[in-house]
Design brief:
single chain, alpha+beta, 2 domains, seven-stranded antiparallel sheet, five-stranded antiparallel sheet, 28% helix
Amino acid sequence: MTALDAIEIEVLRNALTAAAADMDVTMWRTSRSTIVREMLDYSTAIFDADGYIVAQSARIPQHLNSMGYCLRSIVEHFLPVDEWHDGDVVITNDPYSGGQHLPDIVAFRPVFHGGVRTAIVGTLCHHLDVGGMSPGSYAAAATEIYQEGLRIPPVKLYARGVRNEALWQMIRQNVRQPAIMMGDLQSQIASLAVGEQAIKRLAARYGARLGAACRQLLDMSEAAMREVISRMPDGVYEHEDFLDDDGIDKDKPVRVHARVTIAGDRMVVDLSGSAPEVGGPINATLGSSSSAVYFAVVAAADRPIPPNAGCYRPVEIVAPEGLIVSARHPAPVAHRIAPCHVLLNVLFAALSKAIPDRMPAAYYAVSYVCAFQTRTSSTRKVLVEIEVGGCGAHPLGDGASAHSFGMHNNAAIPIEMIESDTPVTIMEYALAPGSGGEGRNRGGLGLRRAWRIDAETATFTAQMDRFRFRPFGLSGGGSGGAGSLTLTRNGEVQPLHSKVSNMPLARGDIIRLQTSGGGGFGPPDERDARALERDRALGLVTKG
């Protein structure tokens, strides 16, 4: 078998990435919900024949760094890959079978050429609702996963090209907006078909060399990552931060701690110092938390590295079962992204002690999830929005304001789209002056957003954080501003907790959110006078 030379390998790498991008575009063009079509909360990827990720689209880091973990969990513990056939589609959303949280349904399809499995294509989609005790399936008061929605174990939705109608109908029967949800699921299937055809074209061209090339791509990324780590100073670097609470015990902060050991070309990330899993739904399984670890290491690299499973090989994660970052069944995990965001900030801070010239201060570090269910005499609508905040400043400049960062890569749902589809009016959408942390370089600003209910009745669920523990600064920079949430009813303003479960709303009620700003970098008294004057002129600071 003739090996591919350097040029052919690069052509093939880009072809695989293009295949994942074509799958991405298919999802975007054929999806039904605003959370997919507008917010872009989905991901697509290509895996080798054994289930290791080799290429991905430019979508959600939290998804992409964990899809391989999910696929390997499926083939190792539930459906061995040798039992996958041409035309099969395997799905799951179970966090304890390798998934993330229940709204995220992952779908995989094997690709065969000449009767031989040559690759696997995959999509992960955040669905608008999968049942459970709260619309949008973000149950802030859940204390076990059974309350969070429909759990789908690893199972074949299609077997040799034939759809499992009983499973399809079972899913449909258990969600609040079945037409939209099933449309998005069908969009995932269409995306898999596009990926399958792209891989078949490559297999027809490269034959058996395709598998060897995938292995070579993984080895190249591993070598590049080892080279990057070897240039970092050997040592032990630690940091910790806290989540406000779990929504059940509202007086108890939740610790996230990381101890990073760099030795030669290897890195060990020990999360053992993190808090035990909690009663409320802010736990994360190791499949979710590992995504934050891998993102931090790739982001800290001083050179571009093609992201694939090879990058992860030099990184060992230590996390005993039963922690906030390695939860056990049946702990609730609806807002599993909360500890993952904080863990990423903790890892950035720990690594800044080794490579201070390229690590940012803390960003907003939470998904500000707002889930509304509005009802009229004839309709029920579910709206899920995920807001962002300010990015941390860094050695070379200010943090971006109201920008999707870290484990995110979401877009905002356009106001016109919300108001045309849901009986809700957006009353405010603006930057939050003064919310960025002070410093030589200023943290990015959070945002303000307000929703007025125009329906007869509604409910509101919030899964948020960063109301107490603000995003920290680095190298003498100040902390970003805290988040806040209020209800305005009949002219009276009432502060709300960061976790709200199925709160009844009436026509005219206004929910107003301010998200946290990013931390500052460097001493504030070193900020350039021209930059400070510009900030004042733009209304970005409230003092100084």
